[in-house]
Design brief:
Elements: E1 2-4, E2 10-12, E3 29-33, E4 35-39, E5 42-46, H1 49-59, E6 62-66, H2 75-79, E7 84-87, H3 112-127, E8 132-135, H4 137-145, E9 150-151, H5 171-174, E10 178-183, H6 188-193, E11 197-201, E12 207-208, E13 216-220, E14 226-233, E15 236-241, H7 253-268
Parallel strand pairs: 3-6, 3-7, 7-8, 8-15
Antiparallel strand pairs: 1-2, 4-5, 9-12, 10-11, 10-13, 13-14, 14-15
Helix pairs in contact: 1-7, 3-4
């Protein structure tokens, strides 16, 4: 921070809090991807507060919102300014052509600009050796970025395990729909939690079909569906979950650990800015 002195030249002042104490500027900076949302007749860049609050609070990081505007904000330019990337959940689905399927009746809504931006951002961040974490849609984006595909029937009425609550429940009640997942022995999550099973919320209509090349399975649902994946790329930690740890995180220590892992990955990355 600076102001102009009596000689007209800028004077550098220490960055301070309101109480006069110097603020630390050493916290890593996490990018949090935005979605394209309709606000009236216009399109806005948006992300739900719960993702931002959980990432900053339990990851102990600073955060910047990253617009999904491919072609105007180049992914490589943005990645160079970030220590890590958080890919959020969203009501939208990836367009099927992203994973090699041309299905005209695939369920939307879609967010094509986000699809394009995240694929470029994932590549740019991992090229730099910087961590990438994902939640729900972000988990699916990572699988597709690694050459995987998605299935769109995981919440069908005849599915062995319903991965989404029925359509007639209230919004909050969707997150009360839970099931257990089995953690892979020796995996990132199993080591962190020191147990072989978690109970997680389940709020998704799509899931992993073909697993992306190079991704390790971290958790499976009782029906065998992949629910979490990890990888190490250029020294950077990649971790993604199909469930929603950002939902009411203050009430769930288990969820807080996901964001703590994110913050630790940013601070320990060998290629941190």
């Amino acid at each position: 921070m600076s102001q102009f002195g009596s000689h007209g030249m800028p004077v550098r002042l220490p960055c301070c809090c309101l109480d006069g104490k110097a603020m630390s500027t050493s916290r890593p900076v996490a990018g949090i991807i935005c979605c394209n949302r309709n606000v009236g007749v216009e399109t806005a860049q948006a992300v739900m507060n719960r993702y931002v609050q959980a990432t900053m609070t339990y990851g102990d990081v600073a955060a910047l919102l990253v617009p999904s505007v491919p072609g105007q904000m180049k992914a490589t330019e943005i990645a160079a300014r970030l220590d890590g990337l958080m890919l959020t959940g969203s009501p939208s689905n990836l367009e099927p052509h992203r994973y090699g399927e041309a299905v005209d009746d695939a369920p939307g809504p879609f967010d094509a600009p986000r699809d394009a931006m995240t694929q470029d951002l994932i590549a740019a961040m991992l090229d730099l050796g910087r961590p990438v974490f994902g939640i729900c849609r972000g988990f699916q984006e990572i699988n597709v970025a690694f050459g995987g595909s998605l299935r769109r029937d995981v919440s069908a009425s005849n599915a062995p395990l319903a991965h989404h609550a029925s359509d007639d429940v209230a919004f909050d009640a969707m997150f009360d729909h839970v099931h257990p997942v089995t953690l892979t022995p020796g995996g990132v999550l199993a080591r962190r939690y020191g147990q072989d099973q978690l109970v997680v919320n389940s709020v998704h209509f799509q899931g992993v079909d073909r697993l992306g090349v190079g991704l390790a399975i971290e958790a499976r649902a009782p029906d065998g569906l992949t629910e979490a994946v990890s990888a190490k790329v250029n020294g950077a930690q990649l971790l993604a979950v199909q469930w929603h740890p950002e939902w009411r995180t203050p009430d769930h220590p288990q969820s807080q650990e996901f964001f703590a892992l994110f913050g630790e990955a940013l601070r320990s990355a060998p290629n941190r800015r």
